[in-house]
Specification:
The protein is α+β, with helices and mostly antiparallel strands. The chain folds into two domains: 234 residues, 2-Layer Sandwich (Nucleotidyltransferase, domain 5), CATH 3.30.420.40; 207 residues, Nucleotidyltransferase, domain 5. It has 17 helices and 21 strands. Strands 15-16-14-13-19-20-21 form a seven-stranded mixed β-sheet, sandwiched between helices. Strands 3-2-1-6-12 form a five-stranded mixed β-sheet, with helices on both faces. It has a three-stranded antiparallel β-sheet with strand order 4-5-8. Helix 10 crosses helix 16 and helix 13 packs across helix 15. The longest helix is centred in the C-terminal third of the chain and has 26 residues. The radius of gyration is 22 Å and the shape is globular.
Length: 483
């Protein structure tokens, strides 16, 4: 297929929807639109959005794109955030809000789930921990707390599936998205009978698992976007897979470090013989897996600090961070503003800051929190290294990290390895386009796509030694407060 092939990438995130047109090797064209979106939050930990409102945001984003000069499109790739779920009624319309991965309310059913499922066996089988992020907890919680809405739901699906249901009149769940639910047997690539047996949901209420292309938009959407009517659309893929692909981390010698709203460290390769405790294992497709860990806290905490502490403009923040000494503030932080995922998965963990005095300044709080988040990444890295000892490059992506060179340097110093910035703008969007290109034959292999990298941050041995002491102090505080 010629290099002039163009692929539309639709990237649905928790803070924005992006529609970008790429060529066959992942170079972005000028045809690009971004629409902000905002999740609804509640005091008790709810993070959700109306599924039809999000569908309309996607649709209006496409409307805006086609007001521009857009090259002829050959296929559509879709990327969405993992671990979300919405209940859908008999008429194909949502009857519950779309519950995000970040919603911590299902934490109340975790003890019950752990009494029904063996955690070690479930982790080995599904690649997921028993945690509020995943669908077993979300579905059980919804059945307990919203029984009327729960009973109206005939089907349960992720947003990408719901989007395709509205656009095409039928839907499917990609293997990638299924693997992030906690309901999939990742080795056998089918819905997990043991997990479903303890839940008030049956397999027929879940979408069929398929990576097959969709063609033929329903009449109203075909009329709205005539150029998309008869071209292949590929089922939504998890954002973590897309981010790895878009940043060039498609082999086990490259580790992807991503900090957007949340954060993650991931390595793509063959199915590992075992999954280290504290990590997850999802599928990119039928032959490739993604092993890694994720933090609920990343750029969201940076933004919270900046807004709450009124830290000023980015250049001043960077100057203050760059001038500070590593762990020079006397603070110890557990950075769990949005709870904890990897590597210890304590759903009820919350942020803690100790060591403050009258001398403590806002910039000290920010630096200590960014350092503390980096320590969490280091603990994930150590676990990944046991499976993939030949990692020779760490590639960083995500606006939360790339917009702060000072934080990039912290990451290198904490991990003790060089960290290279990806220069691929919107890595997850690019990854969705490359995956679609590979599926339709525009690329023979993902590794054939050019890799866009920027500056490399080298670790400093003195700072690394200082951070090792600080990590030990953080671990002591964690063991004292979280049991």
């Amino acid at each position: 297929m010629p290099e002039t092939t163009h692929i539309l990438s639709i990237d649905v995130g928790t803070s924005s929807v992006r529609a970008i047109v790429y060529d066959a090797v992942g170079r972005a064209t000028d045809a690009a639109v971004r629409t902000p979106c905002e999740m609804d939050t509640t005091q008790d930990g709810g993070v959700c959005i109306d599924a039809d409102r999000l569908t309309e945001i996607v649709s209006t984003t496409l409307d805006r794109l086609f007001e521009m000069s857009v090259p002829r499109i050959s296929a559509v790739g879709v990327c969405t955030f993992w671990h979300n779920v919405v209940g859908v009624g008999m008429d194909g319309i949502a009857v519950t809000p779309l519950i995000s991965w970040a919603d911590t309310r299902p934490g109340g059913v975790i003890p019950e789930l752990k009494s029904l499922l063996d955690e070690t066996e479930t982790h080995a089988r599904t690649g997921c921990m028993i945690h509020p992020s995943y669908l077993p907890a979300k579905l059980l919680w919804l059945s307990r707390t919203h029984p009327e809405a729960f009973c109206k739901a005939e089907r349960w699906m992720s947003f990408g599936e719901y989007l395709f249901l509205r656009y095409f009149g039928h839907t499917a769940c990609s293997l990638s998205m299924a693997s992030g639910t906690g309901l999939l047997d990742v080795g056998r690539c089918r819905w997990d009978e043991k997990t479903l047996s303890v839940l008030p949901v049956r397999e027929h209420q879940l979408s069929p698992i398929s990576d097959a292309r969709f063609v033929g938009l329903s009449d109203s959407f075909a009329a709205r976007w005539l150029v998309l009517r008869d071209i292949p659309w590929f089922p939504a893929v998890g954002d973590g897979v897309c981010s790895n692909v878009g940043s060039g981390c498609v082999n086990p010698d490259r580790l992807a470090l991503m900090v957007g709203t949340s954060g993650a460290m991931r390595v793509m390769g063959d199915t590992p013989s075992s999954i280290p405790h504290g990590l997850w294992c999802y599928r990119a497709d039928g032959r490739r897996t993604l092993l890694g860990g994720a933090l609920s806290n990343g750029g969201n905490v940076y933004a919270w600090m900046r807004e709450t502490l009124r830290l000023g403009i980015q250049t001043d923040i960077e100057r203050a961070l760059g001038a500070g000494e590593p762990d020079g503030h006397g603070l110890t932080v557990l950075p769990f503003w949005a709870g904890e995922r990897s590597p210890r998965w304590h759903a009820a963990a919350r942020a803690t800051i100790t060591g403050m005095t009258l001398h403590t300044r806002p910039e000290d709080l920010l630096r200590a929190t960014l350092e503390a988040t980096s320590y969490c990444f280091e603990s994930i890295y150590k676990r990944l290294e046991t499976v993939y000892p030949d990692i020779h490059r760490i590639v960083a992506s995500g606006g939360g990290l790339l917009e702060s060179p000072a934080w990039m340097q912290m990451m290198a110093d904490v991990i003790g390895r060089p960290v290279t910035a990806s220069s691929a703008l919107e890595a997850s969007s690019r990854g969705a386009a490359l995956l679609a290109g590979e599926a339709m034959g525009a690329l023979s292999d993902l590794a054939d796509a050019p890799i866009a990298i920027g500056a490399t941050y080298e670790p400093d041995a003195r700072r690394h030694a200082r951070y090792k002491e600080a990590m030990a102090r953080q671990q002591t505080l964690y063991d004292t407060l979280i049991v």
